[in-house]
Amino acid sequence: MRAITLDSREESKLLLTEVQTRTLLPGEVRVLIKAAALNHRDEWCRKGLYPNIQNGVVLGSDGAGIVTEIGEGVAYDWLQKEVIINPALNWGENQKVQSASFEILGMPRNGTLAESVIVPVDRLHDKPTHMSWEEAGALPLAGLTAFRALTYQGDIQEGENLLVTGFGGGVAQFAVQFGMALGANVSTSSSSPEKLARAKAMGVSNTFNYLDHNWITKAVDDTNGFDLIIDGAVGDTLNHLIQVAKPGGKIVCYGATLGNPSKIEARKIFWNQLKIMGTTMGSDLDFKNMVALVCEKKIQPIIDQVFKFDQAEMAFDRMRDGKQTGKIVLVP
Ligand SMILES: NC(=O)c1ccc[n+]([C@@H]2O[C@H](COP(=O)([O-])OP(=O)(O)OC[C@H]3O[C@@H](n4cnc5c(N)ncnc54)[C@H](OP(=O)(O)O)[C@@H]3O)[C@@H](O)[C@H]2O)c1
């Protein structure tokens, strides 16, 4: 089958090539991929900035498709089913934290940027019927991350002020959509006036350009501060978030695109009783609840652009350059 692999010999570090597939183990299924999507994780792998990188692995965590083969012990009903794949493997039983054997599809295990992928059957969920293949393929990883950040970790309540930073990002857009669906008063930030206009058109109450040095004052003036902030950038901007959090508020970080902060406003954290916490993807229960919300509220992922597999380098470069608004999708 054709697949996009990580290849250190290539200038782009990507190679669309023939990959040998294997026979199924008991409990596994083969899913013919109709659409897959990129996450920043795929770009970190390409840059060699992800732990335990293995050359030759098929990248990709997100995918939707049709079950074409089942392994021993898998119910026949799964054959020909239209499915989405939960890319979080071996979370375990503890809702608070993943187990030591937690793994994400697409490194070190072969992922979804391929004509087909092999996964354990318990990773499958029915494809939401209101979504196209491209939308369904774009949902899993970023949707799961945003949902857990908002609900289990952030404990968002109806009417609370929510700030989601970096609206251009995949996780951020789901956090905005889910926040609105859960009845929060949602604000977002971006470096791009066009992306902010798009957010406004979707129903976001307040928007801020985080490159504008006045944005912190403006955010506090306009909203009186935020009960919950969802952020994937961290770096020194964490101190800005500490400024705009309401006393007693929470900041939930799911990524650190800007790296570590060089200093931190400790006084404001303890005096204002702030909770700063981390989150990573989510449990099987989080995934099930995320899909239920998406289906109940008929939420549709925002698709930035759809590329063919042979345009993978363009797709990855678009993510590297932060040009996207929404998910970048790849189809075989
Ligand atoms: N822990 C997890 O489970 C998990 C899951 C998914 C992602 N992540 C991590 O989270 C980060 C984002 O992932 P993604 O897939 O959503 O990435 P993405 O789609 O590539 O989004 C990156 C976005 O970051 C925003 N950004 C850049 N500088 C910023 C700043 N100073 N303040 C606020 N936002 C800023 C930009 O927003 P604008 O274009 O709007 O300016 C950009 O579009 C990555 O580091 C990724 O590795 C972690």
Automatic annotation (TrEMBL):
<dbReference type="InterPro" id="IPR052711">
    <property type="entry name" value="Zinc_ADH-like"/>
</dbReference>
<dbReference type="InterPro" id="IPR013154">
    <property type="entry name" value="ADH-like_N"/>
</dbReference>
<dbReference type="GO" id="GO:0016491">
    <property type="term" value="F:oxidoreductase activity"/>
</dbReference>
<protein>
    <submittedName>
        <fullName>Zinc-binding dehydrogenase</fullName>
    </submittedName>
</protein>
<dbReference type="Pfam" id="PF08240">
    <property type="entry name" value="ADH_N"/>
</dbReference>
<dbReference type="InterPro" id="IPR013149">
    <property type="entry name" value="ADH-like_C"/>
</dbReference>
<dbReference type="InterPro" id="IPR036291">
    <property type="entry name" value="NAD(P)-bd_dom_sf"/>
</dbReference>
<dbReference type="InterPro" id="IPR020843">
    <property type="entry name" value="ER"/>
</dbReference>
<feature type="domain" description="Enoyl reductase (ER)">
    <location>
        <begin position="7"/>
        <end position="330"/>
    </location>
</feature>
<dbReference type="InterPro" id="IPR011032">
    <property type="entry name" value="GroES-like_sf"/>
</dbReference>
<dbReference type="Pfam" id="PF00107">
    <property type="entry name" value="ADH_zinc_N"/>
</dbReference>
